[in-house]
Amino acid sequence: MNKKEVSEIRRQYVPERCTISRICGCYVDAEKNIKTTLKEAFLSLPEDDAFKYFTIFKKTLSGSIGRNLINLDFPLEEEKEGGCQEFLLKLRDSKLKDDELIEQFYNKIIENFDYGENYYIILIHSAYDVPGKASDGTEMYDASDTVFDYILCSICPVHLSKPGLGYNEEKNCIENRTQDWIVDQPVKGFLFPSFNDRFTDIHSMLYYTKNTAQLQESFIQQMFGCKRIPLDADTQKETFNSLIADTLGTECDYSVVKNIHETLNEKLEEFKDSPEPLELGKQEVRRLFEESGVSDQQMENFEQNYDLTAGEQTSFLASNIASTKAFNIETADVTVKVNPESAGLVETRIIDGRQCLVIAINEHVEVNGISIRIADE
């Protein structure tokens, strides 16, 4: 799914567009015990409760594709009887009215979800009547020819509110406030099936993680049977940096690293309006290095370095490996933070036999918020 398709589903979580038919919930304590469950028609919920659930559902479909929202494909064996995809398909087709299936679903999450605190599992079923689109992109609600039938799951931490004082209106006094268990925003979740090209794709799903550095690969594998899981955002960046270092070797020059940074950001700028994220495989990374001034000699072992460092089939999302907000230069004693668009102001030089960073500056310089005068030659 791309960001436009995700956004289209998110827009349904308002009262006037709501197509959610049923909601189920399961509250689990830190010892993996089920404390209570919920199961009812969504439209029967009080209005205030429904609004709070809408917020949770929107959050489960938030963030960047490739960072918080991960597209996953099911292996063929998982689509056979007894497979993870086949189970999710039965759950969806039951419209959450099969108590036994729902109980199996809860138990599967409880068994595999690694979380040492209380949490609340929320599961909904919805049937979205997908409107057609005119040539100018406007939606035509009277020209729908497909229904996107899906389930959405959100896993939310539940924690005690902070202790403190509060005003008791009945007693008209300030007293110790009663602590409540509060459902927080989701840390994990998923949408099944995917909404690809605005059609139902039962062969894939969308996985949500709040923490981009903790995908919980074992949970994904056990819960959904997906074996090929993309590297998380932080690991992609670390791997890409290692690939640069391995390729450039001892001749890892500042200007080349700066050029790679700038070229990558230029490509991101070109794709900023595209619904699909910019993805770089082995050949795209090769071209990026060559365009950035990596020498032919350094590129001789690129193929081998790529396979050893990243893996032959690994690809990177540009948004995960680019530094669009920061360009940091660090030494043992000094850290210089530069506006990414101004990285060219920094040079490396040998001055009086010493390796130096030289920074071109304008007339205005501040030190700890104090404007200083630049010394004359």
Please describe what this structure looks like.
This protein is α+β, with helices and mostly antiparallel strands. It has eleven helices and 22 strands. The protein has helices at 3-10, 47-60, 84-93, 99-112, 217-224, 233-248, 254-270, 282-291, 296-299, 302-309, 318-321, and strands at 20-28, 34-41, 69-73, 119-130, 132-133, 139-140, 146-160, 165-168, 173-176, 181-183, 188-192, 194-196, 199-201, 204-209, 279-280, 316-317, 327-330, 335-338, 346-351, 354-359, 365-367, 370-372. Strands 1, 2, 3, 4, 7, 10, 11 and 14 form an eight-stranded antiparallel sheet that branches. Strand 12 (194-196) and strand 13 form a beta hairpin. Helix 6 packs antiparallel against helix 10. The longest helix has 17 residues, at 254-270. The N and C termini lie far apart (59 Å).
Strand-helix topology:
Elements: H1 3-10, E1 20-28, E2 34-41, H2 47-60, E3 69-73, H3 84-93, H4 99-112, E4 119-130, E5 132-133, E6 139-140, E7 146-160, E8 165-168, E9 173-176, E10 181-183, E11 188-192, E12 194-196, E13 199-201, E14 204-209, H5 217-224, H6 233-248, H7 254-270, E15 279-280, H8 282-291, H9 296-299, H10 302-309, E16 316-317, H11 318-321, E17 327-330, E18 335-338, E19 346-351, E20 354-359, E21 365-367, E22 370-372
Antiparallel strand pairs: 1-2, 1-4, 3-14, 4-7, 5-6, 7-10, 7-11, 8-9, 11-14, 12-13, 15-16, 17-18, 19-20, 21-22
Helix pairs in contact: 6-10
